Amino acid sequence: MASKTDAVCLALTAMWSAALTGIQVVDGPQANSDAANDWLFVGFNGDVPDEFNEGAVVEQSLMAFARTKQEDGLVTCAVVSRSGDTNIPAARARAYGFLAAAEDAVRADMQLGGLVMHAFVSGHQYSPVQTQQGAKVRVVFTVTYMAQI
Asked: How far is CA 148 from the centre of its chain?
């Protein structure tokens, strides 16, 4: 196996689809017109899709005295919450509530069903904006994992 990145993205999407309610959980950018207000993207930063969106970064190194490698990966994810009004604090609270639920799910299964040695939410960036459709909050976060391949 060249990398666990694909399997990790699939595992996170399945985990969060099962654990979170009230939010669309999707793998990568979507080419649809779903009007849902709340999205959780796996392997995508939730911004305007283009060929320069970085979904994951992976480094591999040989493990001493073994024919295996250690893989350290960073998967970019994002929660995007929109509202029909201009209430940024409410949109922010909703977005961070979804992030907390996503992080709780990873903490409950830090090995992603035995796929990795450990995984955790390691950081995030918060971006608010007012649009013609109302307040929009995007919280881009990183899931860091270590695996053996």
From this structure: 21
Phi, psi of 141 (to 5 degrees): -135, 165
The pTM of the whole model exceeds 0.85: yes
Tokens describing residue 94:
């909703």
pLDDT value at 102 more than 70: yes
Is 40 in contact with 98 (CB distance < 8 Å)? Answer: yes
CATH of the domain at 138: 3.30.2000.10
* Signed CA dihedral, 142, 136, 10, 31: sign only: negative
Count: domains in the chain: 1
